[in-house]
């Protein structure tokens, strides 16, 4: 059962840029240790939500609460957020490493700027951060020497260096191949388990969302139109939601049981939807027999 006091709560968030209203009325909450994926089409305001949570933008309406304390609203002084800034970590899209700094300098930057730790303690944290993301002994490399996946992992090590209570990910698997995307998803799960962080993941990748999410919130037309478990979103009858989630590649299935899957997709259903046979590859107990055509040798 969910706690009555979420660690993070967004209440009726509104944001506009000139005459364009991006967020009309966004509300959701996240519990301690939960992974919440916020999904939706590109350009619909997912990253705007994240920037408001991070204090990079000020809401035009509504409130953002951290541990029941209002940290952002149209009337809240920015100094209020400054008091809790270190409680939030952010993995930027594309990692956003400093090109002129080594890997070690990138990870240690916030530690040197925001803490009074000794240089020895900082170096120890840098090594630990790299070990957590599976990249040891690369402190002296430059970002230009790293692959896209390595940059993402270094960015993640930098983001968790201050041991945040809430971690935000902005499209963490964008521009990565499927294998590296899966490694990043595994890291998100591993770091949550290891550090007990609450994670807010901005994504439009349903395969990733199904794998890592405890709950999924869907943004459409400036509002959250769904917030529930991966199994519940798959069962939704909302036509827009179904169009969105079915248009994504499906690798991970968050269903309550195999029986539920078998009931939803009977053999009759498969015959009626032969154009979608790829959806069923790799799913146990389902077989689609191809028609075999005889070929007469010349």
TrEMBL record:
The keyword Transferase does not apply. One of its GO terms (molecular function) is ATP binding. PROSITE patterns: ABC_TRANSPORTER_1, ABC_TRANSPORTER_2. Pfam families: ABC_tran. SMART domains: AAA. Residues 8-246 form the ABC transporter domain. Signal peptide: none annotated. Keywords: ATP-binding, Nucleotide-binding, Transport. It comes from the Bacteria. SUPFAM superfamilies: P-loop containing nucleoside triphosphate hydrolases. This is ABC transporter, ATP-binding protein. It comes from Chitinivibrio alkaliphilus ACht1.
């Amino acid at each position: 059962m969910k706690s009555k006091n979420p660690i993070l709560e967004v209440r009726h968030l509104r944001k506009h840029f000139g005459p364009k209203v991006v967020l009309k009325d966004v509300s959701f909450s996240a519990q301690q240790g939960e992974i919440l994926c916020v999904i939706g089409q590109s350009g619909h305001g997912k990253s705007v939500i994240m920037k408001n949570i991070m204090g990079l933008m000020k809401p035009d309406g509504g409130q953002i609460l951290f541990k029941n304390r209002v940290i952002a609203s149209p009337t809240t002084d920015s100094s209020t957020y400054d008091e809790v800034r270190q409680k939030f970590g952010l993995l930027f899209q594309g990692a956003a490493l400093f090109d002129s700094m080594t890997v070690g300098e990138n990870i240690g930057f916030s530690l040197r700027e925001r803490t009074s730790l000794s240089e020895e303690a900082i170096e120890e944290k840098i090594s630990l951060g790299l070990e957590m993301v599976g990249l040891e002994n690369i402190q002296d490399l430059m970002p230009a020497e790293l692959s896209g996946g390595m940059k993402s992992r270094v960015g993640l090590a930098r983001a968790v260096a201050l041991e945040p209570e809430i971690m935000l990910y902005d499209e963490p698997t964008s521009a990565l191949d499927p294998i590296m995307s899966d490694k990043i998803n595994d890291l998100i799960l591993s770091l949550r388990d290891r550090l007990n962080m609450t994670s807010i993941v901005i994504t439009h990748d349903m395969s990733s969302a199904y794998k890592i999410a405890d709950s999924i919130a869907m943004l459409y037309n400036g509002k959250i139109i769904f917030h529930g478990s991966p199994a519940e979103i798959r069962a939704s009858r909302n036509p827009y939601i179904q169009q969105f989630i079915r248009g994504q590649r499906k690798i991970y299935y968050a269903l309550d049981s195999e029986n539920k899957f078998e009931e939803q997709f009977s053999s009759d259903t498969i015959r009626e939807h032969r154009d979608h046979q790829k959806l069923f590859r790799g799913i146990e107990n389902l077989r689609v027999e191809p028609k075999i055509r005889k070929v007469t040798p010349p």
